[in-house]
């Protein structure tokens, strides 16, 4: 059974600057939940989590807005950014572009989650690049070493609807729209509108101004 160790950091702490790179005019509304996690097999249990293993693991671009307060018209939870290191592997990374809007968004990165500029998330979207466990032999002494990850890329000026889930290995195209409550398992092309579980393309937009959910 793997062991999980966690460190929570906040923007007020000095260590925050070691792990998070902020551009100008980044606005946090409420207190985000930013967690560094080391998942390790029994052979690594003699060591303790070290902040030095998480340098610059999160970058947030200019003018991004990150909401953690439930004061919206719809339910909005606390923003959660989680970086995971598996055994001796390199810790994951989250890159959030300029002018992005995140509202109670939960992002988990074992390897890489990249969000390009001007992406807007509705409340309570989940983005993950790993399921966090292997499919077989759960609880075995090598479980952490068998956890796989596939990078996620959300391209510029896309919209992700409320309560959507973006699964590992997905690329969402430029100016794409993902409907509320959708589960995105496969790539979404540029200018596509996708909805459902699993999310399927229902139509295309000719221009960004045509986007409607």
Structure notes:
With 213 residues, the chain is mainly β. The protein has one helix and 21 strands. Strands 1-4-7-10-13-16-19 form a seven-stranded mixed β-sheet, with no helix packed on it. It has a six-stranded parallel β-sheet with strand order 2-5-8-11-14-17. A five-stranded mixed β-sheet has the order 12-15-18-20-21, with no helix packed on it. The chain is globular. The termini are far apart. The model has no long low-confidence stretch (mean pLDDT 93).
What structural class results from the helix and strand content?
A: mainly beta
Q: How would you name the oligomeric state of the polypeptide chains in this document?
A: single chain
Uncertain runs with pLDDT below 50, 5 residues or more?
Answer: none
Q: Enumerate the strands of the largest sheet in spatial order, edge to edge or round the barrel.
A: 1-4-7-10-13-16-19
Radius of gyration: 17 Å
* Helix content, binned percent: under 10%
Proportion of residues in extended strands: 35-45%
Q: Main sheet? A: 7 strands, mixed
* E-strand count: 21
Q: Give the integer mean of the pLDDT values.
A: 93
Spell out the helices and strands N to C: EHEEEEEEEEEEEEEEEEEEEE
The CA-CA distance between the termini, in Å, is 43 Å
């Amino acid at each position: 059974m793997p062991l999980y160790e966690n460190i929570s950091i906040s923007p007020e702490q000095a260590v925050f600057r070691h792990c998070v790179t902020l551009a100008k005019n980044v606005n946090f509304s409420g207190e985000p939940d930013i967690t560094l996690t080391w998942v390790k097999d029994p052979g690594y249990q003699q060591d303790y989590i070290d902040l030095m293993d998480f340098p610059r693991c999160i970058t947030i671009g200019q003018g991004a807005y990150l909401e953690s307060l439930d004061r919206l018209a719809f339910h909005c939870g606390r923003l959660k950014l989680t970086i995971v290191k598996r055994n001796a592997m390199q810790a994951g990374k989250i890159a959030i572009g300029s002018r992005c809007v995140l509202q109670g968004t939960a992002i988990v990165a074992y390897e890489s989650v990249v969000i390009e500029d001007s992406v807007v998330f509705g409340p309570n979207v989940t983005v993950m690049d790993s399921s966090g466990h292997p499919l077989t032999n759960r609880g075995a002494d090598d479980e952490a070493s068998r956890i796989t990850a596939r990078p996620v890329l959300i391209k510029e000026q896309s919209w992700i609807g409320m309560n959507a889930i973006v699964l590992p290995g997905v690329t969402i195209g430029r100016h794409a729209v993902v409907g509320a409550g959708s589960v995105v398992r496969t790539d979404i092309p540029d200018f596509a509108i996708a909805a459902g579980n699993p999310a399927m393309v229902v139509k295309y937009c000719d221009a960004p101004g045509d986007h409607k959910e």
